[in-house]
Structures are given as C-alpha cells and as structure tokens.
Amino acid sequence: MTVLESKKSSLLLINNTDFYTIVFFLNLQEFIEFEQSLMYDKTMKWKQTMMERTFWRIGR
C-alpha cells in the first residue's frame, strides 16, 4: 500500500465516521422531538384528569 492509498483509506474512514455521526445526531434529534411530544401528551392527559376530578368533586 502506498502512502497515497493509505491516506485515501483513512480519509474514507473519517468521512464514513462523520456521515454516521451526522445520521446518529439526526436520529437523536427526531427521537428527542418524539419524546417531547409524548411528554406533552402525558402532561395534557394528566391536566385533563385533574380537571375532571376537580369538577366531579364540585358536582357531588
């Protein structure tokens, strides 16, 4: 293997690593956004349940 070939292969490795890192972070961002929307749904559900319980107590 010549010096040029070894440089090419290491550069290719670096490029692949960067690519996978970028893909990983994009997936991570999607996952975080998905988790946040789930938390939002749970919070809204919790608020709705609390309000229903409060009105149920008032109505009794």
What does this protein look like?
The chain has 60 residues and is mainly α. 95% of the residues lie in helices and 0% in strands. The chain is built from 1 helix and no strands. The chain has one helix at residues 3-59. The protein is rod-shaped, with a radius of gyration of 26 Å. The mean pLDDT is 68.
Task: Provide a count of the helices.
Answer: 1
Q: Tell me, what's the shape?
A: rod-shaped
What is the assembly state of the chains in this entry?
single chain
Helix content: over 70%
- Structural class per helix/strand content? mainly alpha
Radius of gyration: 26 Å
The residue ranges in which pLDDT falls below 50 over 5 or more consecutive positions are: none
What is the residue-mean pLDDT, rounded to a whole number?
68
Number of domains: 1
Largest sheet data: none
Strand content: under 5%
Could you tell me how far the N terminus lies from the C terminus, measured between alpha carbons in angstroms?
Answer: 85 Å
**What is the number of beta strands?**
0
Topology order in helix (H) and strand (E) letters: H
Features:
mainly alpha, 1 helix, 60 residues, 0% strand
Annotate the secondary structure layout.
Layout: H1 3-59
Give a concise summary.
This protein has 60 residues and is an all-alpha fold. Helix content is 95%, strand content 0%.
